[in-house]
Amino acid sequence: MIFLPVSIALVLIVLFMPSIYTEAHVSSNVPSPLSTKQGSWLTHNTTLRNQIIHYTQVETLFVKHDTGQNYTSTLLGNVWLEVDAQGHVQVAHTIYTSLDEKVFHQEIYEDGTTNIVVFGKNDSNHPSIKNPTASSNTTCLVQSPANTVQIRDMALPSFVNLSDLQKQGYVLKVNAHTKSQNVPTILVTTKALPVKQYVTNAPVHIWENTTQLAEVNAQRFDHFEIDQQNRLVFHSTARKDMNGTIISSSTYSYGTISIYNTHDVSLSVLSNPQQILTEGCTR
Predict the structure, then answer these.
(1) Domain 33-279, what architecture?
(2) What's the Cα-to-Cα distance from 21 to each of 88, 102, 132, 151, 235, rounded to whole Å?
(3) Does residue 172 contact residue 24 with C-beta atoms inside 8 Å?
(4) Fewer beta carbons within 10 Å, N or C terminal of the chain?
(5) Taking the domains of the chain in order of start, what are their residue ranges?
(6) Where are the alpha helices (H) located in 44-141, listed in sequence order?
(7) Which pLDDT value is given to residue 194?
(8) What pTM value is reported for the model?
(9) Phi, psi of 147 (to 5 degrees)
(10) What is the pLDDT of residues 34-78, one digit of tens each?
């Protein structure tokens, strides 16, 4: 959510997640959820247009290393989006913390002109950790030109056309009474009430697909969980070698979507570039 939304892109970003937000925190060895977010089966609900959107997500990444020092990370993402009348994300703001919200990892802001990423001092992708000679006070914040609106749109909650999903080779396996992973509730600071919410409705439908990756002599396993509103509420991707050993994996679980009228919510909940730049490297 790890160091991509899975996904946005920035200096250290190698791939994107579910989100824009899977961004500065991912390893290039992790299966890219980007490929699962671009299929013809993916749709965006029209009720999200011209609104302020809030949701939370939990993302976990794992990368196996031959040294035995495997990489693993689990983060909680707090996502706010401003969506225009055409359904495109104009402003995206996400804060990543530990699951208990006590440890700050990253803050990512993007609008039509700029992309800002602030790294927490405990973030394993903090530039000063990757470059010990750098000053942690000057490298915690990375500012770069904005990505395209198509990249920002990857942060939108995903809904699925089941017929198209099946055409892509996904197979309905079973129905489950609940999704695989719950998402902690984050206190929302706005006093406005949502005009609509998407809460996961049981049962969830489990769809899976296996792809042979001949170039690396491995297989990719995709697992989707889709609720009664055809919303993608959980997905996992794993790359396994021919012996069945997991080389890398990523999982994303999405919480309730809250939709607010734009005029009911102070845009301060989305933050702004100047505020982020002013706070700087204090976390």
Answers:
(1) Clam (2.50)
(2) 16, 20, 26, 10, 14
(3) no
(4) C
(5) 33-279
(6) 127-130, 136-139
(7) 93
(8) 0.82
(9) -80, 175
(10) 344 456 788 888 899 999 999 999 999 999 988 878 888 999 999
